[in-house]
């Protein structure tokens, strides 16, 4: 019932976070960028960038936009969804 639904929601959030973390790591590696280069281009602290890729760290919309622009992709590409009609 309610507990099962909460567990499912929690599991889905974790899967989504893991997928986004993996995508951010792949985008940075594909573009050959170091954490320092991403920091310079986005203004985000290097520790935050690392935590987004390798730790259980939630991503804000502003951080997502900065990173997507840095990697020259759309926000939807990072999220793995299509919001356009």
Task: Describe the fold and architecture.
By secondary structure, the chain is an all-alpha fold. Helix content is 72%, strand content 0%. It has helices spanning 2-30, 35-42, 46-54, 61-70, 75-79. It is elongated, with a radius of gyration of 14 Å.
Tell me the strand percentage band.
under 5%
Rg (CA only): 14 Å
Low-confidence stretches: none
Pairing-aware structural class of the strands and helices?
A: mainly alpha
Distance between the termini: 34 Å
* Tally of DSSP β-strands: 0
Annotation field: number of helices: 5
Looking at this protein, list some descriptive labels.
mainly alpha, 85 residues, 5 helices
Q: How are the elements arranged and paired?
A:
Layout: H1 2-30, H2 35-42, H3 46-54, H4 61-70, H5 75-79
Brief rundown of the structure:
By secondary structure, this protein is mainly α.
